[in-house]
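Comment thread on ticket #2218

A.B. wrote:
> Attaching the input chain for the structure job we discussed in standup.
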Amino acid sequence: MTGGELLALYPEGTRSPDGRLYRGRPGAAALALITGAPLIPFGITGTDRVQPLGSTRLRRHPVRIRFGPPVAVPPGHERRPDGFPTTAALRETTRRLMDRIADLSGQDVADLPAPRKPSAQDKG
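C.D. wrote:
> Ran it. Output below, let me know if you need it in another format.
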């Protein structure tokens, strides 16, 4: 990317198994804090019914996407000695982003990490 382009990330790291909004991971916040790029929150609902976790088939169901105004990333956030954002800065930025996504999507919030699909190793 050279500038002015968009990159879409899903901060939960997976699809919601039940339509609730789960705790965000810090990747989007890290990119924004390192580059100074704004975070543009968007809420998507209905995808849990289009393709539930574990399903290989798509189902017909309405999907709603709502975009919000950019979340400004403060330029003076805390940094570690190596220049990377501190854990506190990552958590706060991620929390602000997820709060905006919750407002846009109207989803119930589960203050938990998103459940992961069991791997073959887990079953073994």
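A.B. wrote:
> Thanks. Noting for the ticket: The chain has a mean pLDDT of 85.
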